C-alpha cells in the first residue's frame, strides 16, 4: 500500500482545531464512508453501505441514500421497527459521527437526486484511490437506483476512535441556522 499523501496527513480538519458543532456537520461532507444499521422485530442487526447523507433543516432530520441492490433487509427493518443508525466516517482520519433516529419516510430516490448520489460516490472513490484502492473497482459500487430514507434525528454520538468514542453529543449544540440539534425524545 502506498504511503499517505501530504494532503491527507496535513489536513485542516484536525479534530483539535474544530468545534463539536463543526465536527457534527462534517457528517454531511462528500468523500465519507457511510454505513447504516438497522434491527428487525427481534433486534437482530443488519448493516448496509450507504452512498450519501443530506439534511435541509440543521440535522433535525436527515436523508440517507442506500442502494436498492443491497438494502432490502434494511428497508424491511425500517418498515418494521422504524429505527435506523447512520455512521459517517472520514477514511483519512477516522473522524466518525453516528446519528440515531426514527424513520419518517422511505421512498425511491427521485431522478433529480441521481447527480447528488453520483457526486458523493465519486468523492468517496477519490478518497479510496488515495489509499491505493483501485478506482475502477470502487466505481462499481452499487448506488443507483437507491432508496431515500429520512429519519428524525434523536441522538448524535461521537464515534471517532479515542477516549470520546461512544459519547453522546449534547443537544445544546446550536446549528448554523440557530435551531438546536434535537435531544433524545421519549418514543
Query: What fraction, in percent, of the residue positions are helical?
Result: 10-25%
Number of strands: 7
Task: Specify the number of helices.
Answer: 5
Order of helices and strands: HHEEEEHEEHHE
**Secondary-structure class:** alpha+beta
Radius of gyration in whole Å, from Cα? Answer: 16 Å
The biggest sheet amounts to: 7 strands, antiparallel
CATH topology: Pnp Oxidase, Chain A
Low-pLDDT residue intervals, each spanning 5 or more residues: 1-5, 8-18, 172-187
On the 0-100 scale, what is the average pLDDT? Answer: 79
CATH superfamily: Electron Transport, Fmn-binding Protein, Chain A
CATH class: Mainly Beta
Reconstruct the topology from this structure.
Blueprint: H1 6-9, H2 20-25, E1 33-39, E2 45-50, E3 52-54, E4 61-67, H3 72-81, E5 83-90, E6 95-108, H4 114-130, H5 135-138, E7 146-158
Antiparallel strand pairs: 1-2, 1-5, 3-4, 4-7, 5-6, 6-7
Care to describe what's here?
With 187 residues, this protein is of the alpha+beta class. It has one domain (6-158): Electron Transport, Fmn-binding Protein, Chain A (Pnp Oxidase, Chain A, Roll), CATH 2.30.110.10. 22% of the residues lie in helices and 31% in strands. The protein contains 5 helices and 7 strands. It has helices at 6-9, 20-25, 72-81, 114-130, 135-138, and strands at 33-39, 45-50, 52-54, 61-67, 83-90, 95-108, 146-158. Strands 2-1-5-6-7-4-3 form a 7-stranded antiparallel sheet. It is globular, with a radius of gyration of 16 Å. Mean pLDDT is 79; it is low at 1-5, 8-18 and 172-187.
Amino acid at each position: 500500500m502506498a504511503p499517505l499523501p501530504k494532503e491527507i496527513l496535513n489536513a485542516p480538519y484536525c479534530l483539535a482545531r474544530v468545534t463539536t458543532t463543526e465536527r457534527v456537520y462534517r457528517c454531511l461532507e462528500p468523500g465519507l464512508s457511510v454505513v447504516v444499521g438497522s434491527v428487525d422485530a427481534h433486534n437482530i442487526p443488519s448493516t448496509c453501505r450507504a452512498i450519501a447523507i443530506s439534511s435541509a433543516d440543521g440535522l433535525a432530520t436527515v436523508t440517507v441514500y442506500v442502494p436498492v441492490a443491497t438494502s432490502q433487509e434494511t428497508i424491511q427493518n425500517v418498515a418494521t421497527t422504524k429505527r435506523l443508525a447512520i455512521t459517517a466516517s472520514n477514511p483519512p482520519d477516522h473522524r466518525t459521527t453516528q446519528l440515531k433516529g426514527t424513520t419518517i419516510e422511505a421512498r425511491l430516490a427521485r431522478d433529480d437526486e441521481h447527480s447528488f448520489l453520483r457526486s458523493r460516490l465519486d468523492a468517496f472513490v477519490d478518497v479510496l484511490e488515495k489509499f491505493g484502492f483501485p478506482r475502477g473497482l470502487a466505481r462499481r459500487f452499487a448506488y443507483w437506483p437507491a432508496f431515500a430514507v429520512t429519519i428524525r434525528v434523536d441522538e448524535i454520538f461521537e464515534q471517532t476512535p479515542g477516549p470520546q468514542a461512544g459519547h453522546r453529543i449534547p443537544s445544546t449544540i446550536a446549528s448554523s441556522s440557530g435551531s438546536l440539534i434535537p435531544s433524545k425524545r421519549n418514543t
